[in-house]
Amino acid sequence: MADWSYEGKTxxxxxxxxxxxxxxxxxxxxxxxxxxxxxxxxxxxxxEFGYRPIxxxxxxxxxxxxxxxxxxxxxxxxxxxxxxLQFHAHTPSEEGxxxxxxxxxxxxxxxxxxxxxxxxxxxxxxxxxxxxxxxxLWKMMPKTPGEPQQHDVQIDISQLLPEDRNYFxxxxxxxxxxxxxxxxxxxxxxxxxxxxxQLTQYHAIYSDNxxxxxxxxxxxxxxxx
Length: 225
Ligand SMILES: [Zn+2]
Known about the structure:
12% of the residues lie in helices and 38% in strands.
């Protein structure tokens, strides 16, 4: 894959020029992330997270850390199962709500049997509480890019979920090249807390890695409450 980054001549404004495979990054009409302003209240399916503890497998992919979570279970959206594949983080949050980005976002990437991706975004805001799972992840976060490393420690991914399961949803894309579309986005409204120290520790390894807001075009954002 062509070299891309978050700044300068290989930054988001030029992704489409770096490879023919990245054309959608500029021509796509269903791109992510977006700034959420107007929403339509709708009866949306409930989210049921059926995650189970797994051994931690984590890698540094140059842009952020990624936890491989293919055995961690599924998210049920209404009556449809989406298997968790992996999760990773961005700073600041890629999603905006009324123009405001939060300090960080975790993207939990799922896929159903038809290959459709559903990404759950958990927003993180600087606060007093240091999230226990983030505490564990940060200790194991590889400082340099490389292959995934498995550790002798169990993680419970449900510790990343807020209590309130209300959400926004819309149809979008991957937020990194090749910017493929057909991705169902689910943005949980309630944020969780990250400590100032944890944010600093992340930034010691990774620079800002949030793609700019993309035009909404003809799309609608739906809200569960
Ligand atoms: Zn992401």
